[in-house]
Design a protein that fits this description.
The chain is an alpha/beta fold. The protein contains 18 helices and 16 strands. Strands 1, 2, 3, 4, 5, 14, 15 and 16 form an 8-stranded mixed beta sheet that branches. An 8-stranded parallel beta sheet has the order 6-7-8-9-10-11-12-13. Strand 2 and strand 3 form a beta hairpin. Helix 7 packs across helix 8, helix 9 packs parallel to helix 10 and helix 15 crosses helix 16. The structure holds zinc ion (ZN). Zinc ion binds next to loops.
């Protein structure tokens, strides 16, 4: 993928950028506390990319004076970004694209008053997506994944994490990861695949969580690692899904096989976070019901190991779509020094949106994050949540030239204009898409 882009990436110069959101940083860890809102704005900015990598970032007038640019100007492809904002492509660090159909019955039941857990108990929820995935061919599933990826790209997302998790058998989970890989090869952005075999206990193992966890640990994880099909292993650790003890077993097996770990935690019920931190999870996601002790443990861990911090990834699209009227306490997390990221949680049951700008809007309106904090949480901190910050999440020399050009003059307009898509153009590894 990278070799391909090196061969085909033109030399690209973006000029006259009204606001360049560079997000350059002096630290190698994720943004925390007051630093989260530091965007490193450059007005009348310019970015030069060569061979898919960013080589210089600054003012347009300085770029035009540069002797190398002057000498090579005829060979450089220029994009005039007057009146526009350029930011790093969004890093959507939590998505579930390997499904085949929307869950419209669940949607109507919820409108009629059923809760998430009532829907799950009646045979809806995650389990109702399983049959479609098990029946689908790998090629058909890849088509569905690719459709989701294209919708994300159109709204400025250039890197995503993509989970399996609707197969819930060895074959169907491996097929899901293969379909994610197939779609990734046809998409210009970067995909980080995650094995979520432990999404929910499948019907045939009802009441036998331990037996199913052994399949995840002894069959799914070794096969996913051996086939290089996943970078991470995820667990839905919550009431009605997997216990903290099972989560630790799965994390241990993932680590034994050289895979990173992450988990869905505290969405429906509280679970103590501190015991999970010893497995060095890249991210703990949802975080609706965390306690002050959990927040203190996360903040302390962030200070102890600055380069490998656990990011708290918030997915307000799920709170919105479930009609909860309640959102994670982003302000408390940020003000306590916990690194926070934002993601879509793109999935057919609880967050059917591919739009990071919409998630930013929700974060500002319902979680009282500033527009600047929301942008940093959706770019550089998303990159940290995938342990990809050396390549992604900011516009700095040496990083991948993944850029989103928005047809707005001020970055605050990105979360301000709800629903309509203001993304004008997306560049992945120096190539216009
Ligand atoms: Zn999720």
């Amino acid at each position: 993928m990278r070799l391909k882009s090196l061969r085909t990436s033109p030399t690209l110069l973006l000029l006259n950028i009204a606001q360049l959101v560079a997000l350059q940083s002096n630290t190698n860890g994720p943004r925390r506390g007051r630093d989260l809102g530091e965007l490193g704005l450059i007005e009348d900015g310019a970015v030069l990319s060569v061979g898919g990598k960013i080589v210089s970032v600054g003012k347009t007038k300085d770029a035009l004076r540069d002797s190398w640019i002057r000498k090579n100007r005829r060979k450089i492809r220029e994009i005039d970004c007057a009146g526009k904002v350029v930011l790093p492509g969004f890093v959507d660090s939590h998505t579930h694209p390997a499904f085949t159909a929307p869950r419209l019955v669940d949607f109507e039941k919820r409108i009629a008053g059923a809760t998430y857990e009532q829907i799950a108990e009646a045979g809806g929820g995650i389990r109702s997506s399983v049959e479609g995935v098990r029946k689908a061919t790998r090629a058909a599933l890849a088509e569905h994944v690719l459709a989701g990826l294209k919708a994300m790209l159109a709204q400025g997302t250039t890197t995503i994490e993509a989970k399996s998790g609707y197969g819930l058998s060895l074959d169907a989970e491996l097929k899901s990861l293969e379909a994610i890989g197939d779609a990734a090869r046809q998409w210009p952005g970067t995909v980080v695949p995650t094995l979520l075999g432990a999404h929910v206990v499948p019907r045939e193992y009802e009441g036998r969580e331990g037996k199913y966890v052994r399949i995840v640990c002894q069959e799914m994880i070794p096969r996913a690692a051996e086939g290089k099909l996943a970078c991470f292993v995820d667990v839905f650790c919550d009431r009605g899904a997997f216990s903290p003890e099972s989560t630790e077993h799965i994390f241990f097996a993932a680590r034994e096989h050289g895979l990173g770990v992450r988990a869905h935690v505290c969405q429906l019920s509280h679970c103590e976070i501190a015991p999970l931190l010893k497995y060095d999870p890249a991210s703990l996601d949802h975080m609706d019901r965390v306690t002050d002790d959990d927040i203190a443990a996360l903040a302390a861990q962030a200070v102890l190991s600055p380069a490998y911090q656990t990011v708290a990834t918030l997915v307000p699209g799920a709170n919105h779509f479930l009609g909860l009227g309640r959102f994670p306490d982003a302000r408390k997390l940020i003000d306590s020094g916990v690194p926070v990221a934002l993601a879509t949680d793109y999935n057919p049951g609880t967050s059917p949106t591919a739009s990071m700008p919409f998630v930013l809007s929700l974060a500002c309106t319902h979680m009282k994050m500033t527009p600047a904090e929301a942008i940093a949480a959706a770019t550089i901190n998303g990159a940290h949540a995938l342990r990809l910050a050396e390549r992604k999440g900011s516009i700095e020399p040496g990083k991948d030239a993944d850029l989103a050009i928005f047809d707005v003059a001020d970055y605050r307009e990105i979360p301000y204009w709800i629903v309509g898509n203001r993304c004008h153009k997306v560049i992945c590894a120096g190539v216009e898409t």
